[in-house]
Amino acid sequence: MSCPALPEGFDLTDPDLHQHRVPLPELARLRQTAPVCWIPQPHGVAGFDDDGYWAVTRHADVKEVSTRPEIFSSHANTAIIRFNEHIQRDQIDVQKLIMLNMDPPEHTRVRQIVQRGFTPRAIRALEDALRDRATRIVAGARESGSGDFVTDVACELPLQAIAELIGIPQQDRSKIFDWSNKMVAYDDPELAITEEIGAESAMELISYSMNLAADRKACPAKDIVSRLVAAEDEGNLGSDEFGFFVLLLAVAGNETTRNAISHGMHAFLTHPDQWELFKAERPATAADEIVRWATPVMSFQRTATQDTELGGQRIEAGQRVGVFYSSANNDPEVFDRPETFDITRDPNPHLGFGGGGPHFCLGKSLAELEIRLIFNAIADTLPDIRLTGEPRRLRSAWLNGIKELRVTYT
Questions:
Q1: Positive or negative: CA dihedral 70, 120, 252, 282
Q2: Three-state SS across 76-100?
Q3: Percent of the chain predicted with pLDDT > 90
Q4: Distance (Å, whole) CA 137 – CA 267
């Protein structure tokens, strides 16, 4: 079984491909001719005991998979569509302790607890500190004259936001950044991060977080961590659950927002009319278009729990189903001129925060706040920022990452 709409051997999750581009032309061809299509893989290449997956590329079908967890499981094989081929099954299975890889009712229980930290009130309480931080980040970049936008600007605010949210001391925050980088960079040989180093970093972050939770249980403070772990009943997280929650935040809340900001800056600088519009009007719709355009998570997967049908295609129980957000966010059935970066786009029902359902991004409001604050600060302080080189992309099977973006700030 193969996909006639693609060249022989073409794999949408190939990290070598993503190091150079997102396969938007191929995804468009699939949407038009084979919206639910079997993608064969060499046995075990993605870390799973199978020979491929179904690629789901239309907006409507991605939403359907996302909103039917009883049919399409996040837990069975996790949500990560491709691991390193040398990974062991027990290394995959331990990741099922992360909320991203849970199904209801366990997912429901954990999410009801952790969403206490993401209420509108909790996010508003962070705004002044994050605005001040954004201003200082951009001022520091201006003083340097030129540099790498990713390390100088994009990476800092998401890290600080997560650290502020869960009360990580300032002196420890660089550790979180380092650990989260290593956890997602094992596919990129330029970064010299092996899968073993990535796993060690994950365990260090979990251990650090468990110790933080234990400290708050012993000595509660007026912070989110204490609210999540300090009480005694089932409505709170154990120290181990909190550790895995912070692990998720370090990737879902740090890496993804950083890449949205990096892609957003590149989009503005390659669409100067949109940058001029943003500087003049600051439209409230800009953050959503940045996320749609960037789609920091290109794809996740689910596993069919039973024989089912999707988009007219029969899917067997146990088969993996890849949902391609990069394709859904460029579906012309939903978006007018999706190939156009338009910060006034409204409505904008993008799936950059997921396709709805139980796994819709818990940190959506926080991410949008960070994007708004950092680009307001850039427009105020660095209005003449310019590109001096092409972005260098991260080699990854599923994360749409930029690891370097050279610019002149003044």
A1: positive
A2: CCCCCCCCCCCCCHHHHHHHHHCHH
A3: 71
A4: 20
Q: Name the CATH topology of 15-408.
A: Cytochrome p450 (1.10.630)
Which tens digits make up the pLDDT trace of 243-269? Answer: 888 888 877 788 899 999 999 999 999
Our separate counts of H helices and E strands in the chain read: 17, 12
DSSP 390: P
Tokens coding 207: 């251990």
Angle 96-101-107 from CA coordinates, rounded to 5°: 105
Q: What is the Cα–Cα distance from 225 to 239, expressed in whole angstroms?
A: 10
Q: Dihedral of the CA atoms 360, 361, 362, 364 (nearest 10)?
A: -130
What DSSP state is assigned to residue 391? Answer: P
User: Which residues, in sequence order, are bridge partners of residue 54?
Assistant: 38, 321
Question: Reading across the β-sheet that carries 52-56, which strands appear in turn?
Answer: 36-40, 52-56, 320-324, 299-304, 72-73
Total count of residues recorded for the chain:
410
The predicted pLDDT at position 260 comes to 98
Closest CA to 15 of 96, 80, 76: 80
Question: What are the extents of the domains in the chain?
Answer: 15-408
If pLDDT is split at 50, 70 and 90, which confidence band does 129 have?
A: very high
